[in-house]
């Protein structure tokens, strides 16, 4: 089960390779999430506009004012990019949230087990988050997060990923920024990723 490596590669490519985006999400800033709990739980529902996937696979409330790219760059379903990145590494890596949708025979538990194993292969990887959560639509999900060094650019990065598997479809939403800018993005990423809804995901024709 190779979803972990593919997702991490996608995160790095999305941050360094994306060009301009054509749409801007309007709305108000989302509230801070509730304090983390050992029991599966989600924070309060975010305010602002919700991005709805055109194929009906998921919805997600991105940070207000972030640009949206639905061109399929690097295999993504959508990428949200901050218009004015912060942090010392901003010129080389733009903070972003991307969503990947793939068909998988694995369940959520197997997906997370495989992702944990493959994340350990990243240069200098240190886990910062590993918890079961429940999405606002009642779907079980899991959050993994960590810091690592991109072997190509040597940038120190930090990310948080939300995994869910529904009806044979794995949906992975990932927020990534330079590690030294995490203070500007951590809460924003957490609130946005926890807004994910996937209850209506179905296997498409020919998939």
In short:
The chain is built from 3 helices and 10 strands. It has 207 residues and is α+β, with helices and mostly antiparallel strands. It has an 8-stranded antiparallel β-sheet. Strands 2-3 form a two-stranded antiparallel ribbon.
Q: Stretches where pLDDT falls below 50 for ≥5 residues?
A: 12-45, 201-207
Q: Tell me what portion of residues adopts beta-strand conformation.
A: 25-35%
End-to-end distance = 18 Å
Task: Provide the spatial order of strands within the biggest beta sheet.
Answer: 1-4-5-6-10-9-8-7
Biggest sheet: strands, sense, closure? Answer: 8 strands, antiparallel
Mean pLDDT over the full residue set: 76
Quickly give the structural class: alpha+beta
Provide the fold topology:
Layout: H1 3-17, E1 23-24, E2 51-52, E3 59-60, E4 67-69, E5 78-81, E6 96-103, H2 108-119, E7 126-134, E8 140-149, E9 156-166, E10 169-178, H3 182-193
Antiparallel strand pairs: 1-4, 2-3, 4-5, 5-6, 6-10, 7-8, 8-9, 9-10
Helix pairs in contact: 1-2
Tell me what the structure shows.
The chain has three helices and ten strands, in the order αββββββαββββα. By secondary structure, it is α+β, with helices and mostly antiparallel strands. The protein has an eight-stranded antiparallel β-sheet with strand order 1-4-5-6-10-9-8-7. It has a two-stranded antiparallel ribbon with strand order 2-3. Strand 4 (67-69) and strand 5 form a beta hairpin. Helix 1 (3-17) packs across helix 2. The radius of gyration is 16 Å and the shape is globular. The protein starts with a helix and ends in a 14-residue tail after the last helix. The model is unreliable at 12-45 and 201-207 (pLDDT under 50).
């Amino acid at each position: 089960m190779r979803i972990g490596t593919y997702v991490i590669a996608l995160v790095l490519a999305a941050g360094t390779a994306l060009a301009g985006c054509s749409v801007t999400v309007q709305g108000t800033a989302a509230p801070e999430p509730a304090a983390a709990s050992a029991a599966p739980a989600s924070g309060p529902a975010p305010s602002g506009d919700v991005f709805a996937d055109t194929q009906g696979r998921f919805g997600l409330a991105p940070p207000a004012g972030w640009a949206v790219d639905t061109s399929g760059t690097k295999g993504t379903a959508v990428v949200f990019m901050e218009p004015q990145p912060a942090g010392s590494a901003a010129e080389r890596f733009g903070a972003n949230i991307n969503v990947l949708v793939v068909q998988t025979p694995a369940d959520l538990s197997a997906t997370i087990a495989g992702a944990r194993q493959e994340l350990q292969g990243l240069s200098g990887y240190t886990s910062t988050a590993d918890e079961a959560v429940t999405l606002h639509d009642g779907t079980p999900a899991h959050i993994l997060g960590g810091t690592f060094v991109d072997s190509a650019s040597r940038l120190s990065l930090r990310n948080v990923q939300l995994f869910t598997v529904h009806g044979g479809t794995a949906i992975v939403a990932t927020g990534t920024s330079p590690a030294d800018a995490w203070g500007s993005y951590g809460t924003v990423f957490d609130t946005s990723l926890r807004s994910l809804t996937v209850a209506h995901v179905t296997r498409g024709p020919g998939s």
